Each structure stands twice: as structure tokens, then as C-alpha cells.
Amino acid sequence: MIRVNLLCVVGRNRTLFQPSRPFPRKLRFFKGVTCALQCKPNYSSKKGTSFPTGNCHQRVVFWDFRNIEDVGFRHFCTAQVNLNCWNCEQPLMQKPAFFCMSCQMVQPPSEGTTYFNIMDCDCAFTLDIQKLQKRYLQLQRILHPDNFSQKSLREQEYSESQSALVNSAYRTLLKPLSRGLYMLELQGLNIEEGTVSAVNSELLMELMEINEALDAAPTPQETNRIGQDTKGKLADLTQQIDSALNKGELQTAKALLTQMKYFTNIEEKVKEKLSRFM
């Protein structure tokens, strides 16, 4: 078994990811690493950057990320490689691998796989929600624990773990706020609970006024008006956050996501108040 302690980038549809700007000078390529899928690609070099030229099945290329500079969220996500099936020890040909293609056994969750990898979508703030929902239903149909009630305890355990992971990935990526917070988490940034560091005094006053108006709203119409204004603000924040993440401006994105948390709370309060009028 080959042990690889690096991260990998997997190009789909036989193409390596192509960044919109040149690779940073500090990006280094290791020519001597064998493909985890036991392929033997050849490599060529142009202006100091190496690319695979052989017939590597999944185009698995290993990079040293210790000195990499930011190249943007949309270009790639990373995941560690699980090499072999636990049952038949054949190479796992898909990443992430839910089932072994040789023996059809359900596999344990791939260590280090991101939610974006699991849901087969770009590592980006703007997602195709219909595609996300379709992927979720597809995975739950094949991984649901009920399908493994007559299988071995190990298979039942793996199906439960995989199904729970898919649920978590879907819930996280479905909403802009949780999706953005997760993207920051992947970069080592977290927003502490109750923080107001990214909210200026003017915005704090605006939030207080909105909350007071919502508490005093006498009719469903007035409550709904506040809700519509809040949706407009959230839509504007969504565009700003998307732009910040695309540019790699993580601190700006963090500040905007903090604001989004407050307006999302107001949106929830609007829904609660409207339900009382029913």
C-alpha cells in the first residue's frame, strides 16, 4: 500500500483545474509521487510548472501546499486519499468512495473529504441548489441504513456514518450563511458566537430599530414588510460575500458573514411572528 502524506487535487473530465491567474511562484510540484490509482502518467514542464501528460485515470496530481499562496476558492478543493477497499483491498476508483466498484461493499467515510466533494459541487459560495438537492436524494437512496439492515454490523455502521455525513453536508451547503461559515472554516477562520467586532455602531443601531419595529408590528402586513426588507438585505450581503470569497478577501467575507448572521436571526423572528397571526 502506498502511503501519501500530501494533499491531492483531482481534475474531473480528464482536465486539470485551470486557475484564472498564474500559479504562485512558491507552488512546488513533486514529480516522483506515483498516482494513488496505480496509473503511470508522464509529466512535462513548461515555465517551471508541471502537468500530467499520460493516461492517468483520475488525473491525480500531488502538490506541496505548505508554501502555496491563495489562488481562489473556485479553483479546487482538497481531500486526503483512501487507497483500498476494506473488504477486497482493491483500489477505490472514485473519490469520495461510497462503494467499492469491485465488491460493491459500502465504504467508511473518506478521511479529510470536504462537504463540497461529498455533494459533487464546486468549492464556491454560489451553488446550483437544485443540483445539490438532486445529489442529496441520490446519495440517501443508496446509503440509507434501512438498505443495510440485513448486512453485516460493519456495513451497517459504515452506512450510518455515510448517511449522517451526507445529511450534515447537505444542511451545511444548502443555506448561504452556513455555507459561507463552512468555507471560512476550511481556511481556518471561525466566527465566535456573540461577536460584534465586525458590526459598526451604525449597523448596530439599524439592527436594534428593526428588532423594535418587529416587536411592535401590529399586523401580518407590517411584519411581512419587515421580512421583505430583511430578505433584500440578505440578498445584497450574499452578492458581497460571493465577491469577497472569489477575490480571496477572507477577512472581508468574515465581517460580511457576521452581519448576515444578525439579519438571518431577524428573518427567523419574522417567520415566528407571522406564525402567531395564523
TrEMBL record:
Signal peptide: none annotated. NCBIfam families: hscB. Keywords: Chaperone, Cytoplasm, Metal-binding, Mitochondrion. SUPFAM superfamilies: Chaperone J-domain, HSC20 (HSCB), C-terminal oligomerisation domain. Pfam families: HSCB_C (PF07743). GO terms for biological process: [2Fe-2S] cluster assembly; protein complex oligomerization. Belongs to the HscB family. GO terms for cellular component: mitochondrion. PANTHER family: IRON-SULFUR CLUSTER CO-CHAPERONE PROTEIN HSCB (PTHR14021). Gene3D superfamilies: DnaJ domain, HscB, C-terminal domain. Residues 113-178 form the J domain. Acts as a co-chaperone in iron-sulfur cluster assembly in mitochondria. Required for incorporation of iron-sulfur clusters into SDHB, the iron-sulfur protein subunit of succinate dehydrogenase that is involved in complex II of the mitochondrial electron transport chain. Recruited to SDHB by interaction with SDHAF1 which first binds SDHB and then recruits the iron-sulfur transfer complex formed by HSC20, HSPA9 and ISCU through direct binding to HSC20. Plays an essential role in hematopoiesis. Homodimer. Interacts with ISCU (cytoplasmic form); this interaction stabilizes the (Fe-S) clusters on ISCU. Interacts with the CIA complex member CIAO1 (via LYR motif). It is found in: Cytoplasm; Mitochondrion. Pathway: Cofactor biosynthesis; iron-sulfur cluster biosynthesis. One of its GO terms (molecular function) is ATPase activator activity. This is Iron-sulfur cluster co-chaperone protein HscB. It comes from the Eukaryota.
